[in-house]
Amino acid sequence: MTARIAPTALYQEVAERLRQRIFAHELLPGAWVDEQKIAEQYGISRTPLREALKVLASEGLVVLKPRRGCYVTEISPRDLDDIFPLIALLEGRCAAEAVHKMNKADLERLAAIHARLERSARDNQITDFFEANQEFHRTIQELADNRWLLQVIQDLRKVLKLSRIHSLSLEGRLQQSLEEHRAIMAALEAGDARQAEQLMHDHLLSGREALARMQDSKAA
Amino acid sequence: MTARIAPTALYQEVAERLRQRIFAHELLPGAWVDEQKIAEQYGISRTPLREALKVLASEGLVVLKPRRGCYVTEISPRDLDDIFPLIALLEGRCAAEAVHKMNKADLERLAAIHARLERSARDNQITDFFEANQEFHRTIQELADNRWLLQVIQDLRKVLKLSRIHSLSLEGRLQQSLEEHRAIMAALEAGDARQAEQLMHDHLLSGREALARMQDSKAA
DNA sequence: ACGGATAATACTTTATTCATAATTATGAAT
DNA sequence: ATTCATAATTATGAATAAAGTATTATCCGT
Fold it and tell me: Which end of chain B is more exposed for a tag (fewer CB within 10 A), N or C?
């Protein structure tokens, strides 16, 4: 028997695997989640799978219809219009809090991530840029040092991942995104909380706008 | 056998019953939740109970320790300091959005609730006041018409209910709370979104401060 | 007498089985 | 030919049982 280093319960592992499949759009929004089939695929019984689905349901990734089964959540344009301003508000607050709470070492760590962002953009490494971008935001959220604020943002971002928007919305406006990041970084370095909050807020809204333009042009 | 009017799943009913027991502090923070005992009490098997606990866990009401069982979440003063400003931010936003989205009928409905608040305060009906207060906040949140914003606030408020603070923090400052509500109501009626946001924000923070003072005096 | 190790007990976790409800398909009647 | 009703099949929801892991208590050794 292999030593189980991670003492994590089976239903948690299953939840994580399903999360990844949903984010990878292997399970499409609206699709029915066949309990028997998945349980069979994973070589487990339905009990831990059902418990995993309860977890995903409260994360908003799936919807459980009583006596009807489980379906992957569908996100509407309306939902995006509701969620983006909310994340903008919350991450704006993170930026402001980060200014107050971070020390010199934190700032240098953030600067290093920002440098990676600049490098990836210069070399046109989309995947790298995407990752560094995520880490940049995540780090600022953690510097705000508010467990509940972090949790709320992460939950909302999970829901956003249901849509294919995330990577796409970045690609089209890599240069603009980069400049916005520069401005945020400058505000953080200057210790200007108000400015950092405003810039972060606008940065996220501008992401939503770029996405809307993209969908408009696709519709035409 | 009573006819099951509600076609809701057993685990949902169980989750709701447990929620109420937790909010009523019949299950104290930190207390171990004995699966066998509860299942026996409710006359059900442990399977739906376990599914209910998964739901409560993602709401943050209980903590599931792998191989250790389930415990009612304990909220620290630090958590309160993290959560209150967050709710203040979010409900402030609700007030601002409500100004933009509500119509005349909505405003009248809100005014009626506010009138109930005034009446309860005058007659010193604490329970009534408490209920009207909740409805006032809830209504403004719904007027903001943002499903995700509402969800986040409700989740955070659920966690706050773990602490006994809510009713207590009101009793001590009924008059002040009433005056703050009056100001918020006036801003809403004037259609001043900025002002409504600010007042709602400060109203919630002032609730936290009153609580802190109360705990200080209790400690002394 | 104190500390560590082993064994036993208890509780979580997973699997299997069963029942109930919903949906779909088929057949009959209009 | 179309619609409605009934029956059958399939999937969800619940319960019981079995297995594995953690914790605690006891015993032995130092």
Answer: N
Residue type, A217: S
How many angstroms away from the CA of B29 is the closest CA of chain A? 18
Distances in Å between the alpha carbon of A154 and those of A137, A170, B51, B161? 11, 19, 23, 22
pLDDT tens digit string along B135-192? 999 999 999 999 999 999 999 999 999 987 766 666 678 899 999 999 999 999 999 9
Beta strands across the sheet bearing B62-65: B32-33, B69-72, B62-65
How do residues A80-128 score in pLDDT, each as one tens digit? Answer: 999 999 999 999 999 999 999 999 999 999 999 999 999 999 999 988 9
Q: CATH classification of A77-219, choosing from 1.10.630.10, 3.40.50.700, 1.20.120.530, 3.40.50.1860?
A: 1.20.120.530
Between CA A134 and C1' D2 the distance (Å) reads 58
Q: May I ask the CATH architecture of the domain B10-72?
A: Orthogonal Bundle (1.10)
d(CA A144, CA A93): 8
